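Saturday, quiet lab. Running sequence design on the structure tokens for the scaffold JK sent over.
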């Protein structure tokens, strides 16, 4: 039997934790690290080996996967901060780096370039599918980087997800992820607005949603994550907007989309409006709720 590939996994939060567990279950030799003791304990309870620093995790690893909150965490980890040397210097020559965090395309390019200068292949591989997809191993990976690096990464990605899209060179995965989430943010807000309008006219929210779900405005927001309480028993709206994809994460992604648009002079009027709506929703104290709670800006719910 061949020795299992050693993988360092850094960032064991809502997404990274279940992703690391799936790699372990698939037979990879995972060495995991997070700054949070609770996050470490949660994966250890599932049999994953944990270590006490990112440097210890990458020792001997052929693949490094990171799943961190935002650009500054990813740049800080790999490139270093102040006097602290970045992790790229400690990764074994010839290893492959996969960053699955959602970050600015420019940050992804900057880190990939620094990795390349050290002879390390790197891909940006942000994901879609949420915590449910991370747990079930059904994530969609949206990849930027060299095709050869993606082929090396494929068996690792397949242990955590079911769809893989190669979007182009370094940073292209992040651009595509922002396009998806910007569309989602706009669609969710207008779906809530449409249902609120119908309800104000005395329509039943569920009958209206059922009609929309088989008509031309059908979307994931009407069919799966409906923003109106009680329409879908399993949607966050039916449990006080708890769980799901946080308003603050959507706000972060829309901010990245605005930044990315400015970088190339693109106009995204609806994306910018949506960013303001989710920012207002956060100011109203709902930053930690599921993003479908944005509907509460538009109406008083039953
Ligand atoms: P999270 O905050 O739950 O987890 C991030 C983890 O990174 C935390 O446990 C934190 O302690 C750890 N961390 C931060 N800096 C670190 C460092 N230097 N070294 C080691 N660990 C460090 O976030 P999440 O929900 O798991 O999301 C991770 C990324 O995935 C984000 O970029 C997010 O936008 C993206 N994403 C999230 C979802 C979702 O539904 N939660 C869906 C798709 C994409």
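Result came back. Writing it out in full:
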């Amino acid at each position: 039997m061949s020795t299992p590939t050693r993988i360092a996994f850094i960032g064991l939060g809502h997404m990274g934790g279940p992703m690391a567990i799936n790699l372990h279950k698939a037979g990879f030799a995972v060495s995991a690290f997070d700054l949070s003791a609770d996050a470490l304990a949660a994966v250890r309870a599932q049999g994953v080996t944990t270590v006490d620093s990112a440097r210890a995790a990458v020792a001997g690893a052929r693949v490094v996967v990171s799943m961190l909150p935002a650009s500054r965490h990813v740049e800080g980890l790999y490139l270093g901060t102040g006097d602290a040397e970045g992790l790229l210097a400690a990764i074994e020559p010839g290893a492959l780096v996969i960053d699955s965090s959602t970050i600015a395309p420019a940050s992804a390019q900057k880190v990939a370039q620094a990795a390349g200068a050290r002879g390390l292949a790197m891909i940006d591989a942000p994901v879609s599918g949420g915590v449910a997809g991370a747990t079930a191993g059904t994530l969609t990976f949206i990849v930027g980087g060299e095709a050869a690096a993606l082929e090396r990464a494929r068996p690792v990605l397949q242990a955590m997800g079911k769809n893989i899209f190669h979007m182009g060179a370094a940073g292209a995965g992040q651009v595509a992820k922002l396009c998806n989430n910007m569309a989602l943010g706009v669609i969710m807000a207008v779906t809530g607005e449409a249902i609120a309008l119908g309800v104000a006219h005395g329509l039943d929210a569920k009958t209206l949603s059922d009609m929309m779900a088989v008509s031309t405005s059908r979307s994931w927001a009407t069919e799966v994550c409906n923003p109106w309480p009680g329409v879908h028993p399993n949607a966050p709206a039916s449990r006080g907007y708890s769980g799901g994809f946080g308003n603050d994460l959507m706000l972060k992604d829309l901010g990245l989309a605005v930044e990315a648009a400015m970088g190339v002079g693109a106009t995204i009027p609806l994306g910018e409006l949506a960013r303001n709506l989710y920012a207002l929703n956060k100011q109203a104290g709902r930053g930690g709720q599921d993003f479908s709670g944005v509907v509460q800006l538009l109406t008083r719910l039953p």
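Notes for JK: The radius of gyration is 20 Å. The chain has two domains: 6-169, 175-297. Ask whether to fix the surface positions before the next round.
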